[in-house]
Fold each of these.
Amino acid sequence: MITSRRIVPAGGGRAATVRKEVELAPGARLRLCALEGSGRIVRFWMTLPVIGQSSILKDAVLRMFWDGEDQPSVETPLGDFFGASFGKPVHLVSARLVVTGGAYLCRFEMPFNDGAVIEIENGSANALRNLFFQIGYYEEPRRERRPTLHAQFRRECPTEPGRPFVVLQARGKGWLAGVRMDFQTRAWWLKPPWRDIVLPRGFGLGVLEGWETITVDAATEPLIGTGAEDYFSGGFYFKGAPFCTPTHGCTRRSFVSGRVSAYRLHEDDPIPFDESIDIVMDHGLENTMEADYSSVAYWYQDEPHAPFPPLSPAPARRPSLPWTNAVQLVICAAVLAMWMGAAVWIVVR
């Protein structure tokens, strides 16, 4: 079955004008669906223009409630849930998340045992315009209770020296289904010792030298990685990016802006947990490079889930301006040009 929204003016009928899209006033909430009984959502599609509402993918908030719960199991900025990069619709094609062709698609299965509610809140100071959506689901008989999808957004700007960025802290029984992250350097890497500029600072992308630490059920020996791009199944600062595969990819990588967007879906290697899972990501070696990090973690678990941290206001969710890396690269280029010019002058002379 499919649920979508068509608005017919009062006194309508076939002769009345039918609006297929939805507009949402500032601060208003819209309930996209309210399903009863048990079943599973298998397709969530939407589209809306970003021209004229450039921050809407960060300003609007998506929430999902399962089985009559009061607190959402999914709470993220609208674009982040689908895989938008820094609030923009950058091409992404994977097994579960798709951003292409002017639309956004989620194919994570979303079981519900006693009802499902999906809603959007417009956190912008302006109206949300021209939203189209479809939600495809199956109604199924009640049976053994199934774990439900959870998704949580986190943002830290700037990151704290010496402390990793927290991607997820979940309590209960379930499994990790995926992680998507935006990395943006804010560090001033153009400084002594000069040999560190290339490695480990990586002309700004050295934030990726930080590794992930995944702790399952408070284990004394957590899973520790070798670098952020390695966790996302890439290497050498995502050489050759952008690229997409069904389970991992890098949709944005720029030395000029110092921005990277990456995803990993644990389709074939879900990480189960019986009591808890904690995921942190370093920013540079030993958390020494200042950065702007944001993430969405996707996981399934039995209810109840631990309370989510409060979602920051819309302006605080928008990415910071990407000027830091550009300025340093310009300085590097100018110094290199001066050296080359001096070398040529000496040779000619």
Amino acid sequence: MREIDVADVTRAIAELAMDACYNLGDDVLAFFEAALEREESEAGRDVFRQLIQNAEIARREAMPLCQDTGLAVVFLEAGQDVHFTGGSLEEAVDEGVRRGYTEGYLRKSAVVAPFAERTNTGDNTPAILHTRIVPGDRVKITVVPKGGGAENMSALAMLKPAQGRQAIVDFVVDVVSKAGPNACPPMVAGVGIGGSFERVAFLAKKSLLRQIGSVNPVPRLAELEDELEALCNDLGIGPQGLGGRITVMDVFVEEAPAHIAGMPVAVNIQCHSARHKEVTL
């Protein structure tokens, strides 16, 4: 049994929150640079030039890539041979978010009583925490600052099995079409298929952790991703909604078994600031 003090979890999450908000992933930057050659619209190419410059300034000055530093979504995979010491794991996660967003001067966007007084919690807690027990004696932590604009354009549908694959395609493309400029394209479309009402939304969000340009190991899902990407880019929304060839950077699909009577589908939209950082303790 390996012991890990929850204080180490707190420190890791604080650092990851700041790192994710300051430093855009190399996969996203590589996409922006390649898009300068692919994008047909001059306005779109200018957007990509500005996104690259913005990322360079944020990295150099240790400033947020976007003023919306999002709600803190934390994926935590804990090895079953790990024993946490020093206090509550969930409280340690929230303390990490609190420190990261305070010390990093990141905007606090969490409010209580969503349809009433909507009072800001003041420290961006509580975190949206997803935990999973896995084999081993390591702890993998991924922090995803999830902005509100793209999140607001996400959607879920409880489709009928008889509607088949085409209904999934139509739903995903319709969600991206309705998102339009509101999701700050070029966007990433995370798609969950199957499971249950709550499981399918989790699958859609989890899919956003994949690297831009990665290929799904399941051939039929890889084929579906390619088809969805092509159809979404054919919408002509373009970078920042100014028109052009590139509306989505990628489409990722995660799948799970479902009830015989259902075919849930969820689309979680991510903006061009596709931020997530991870560490293993």
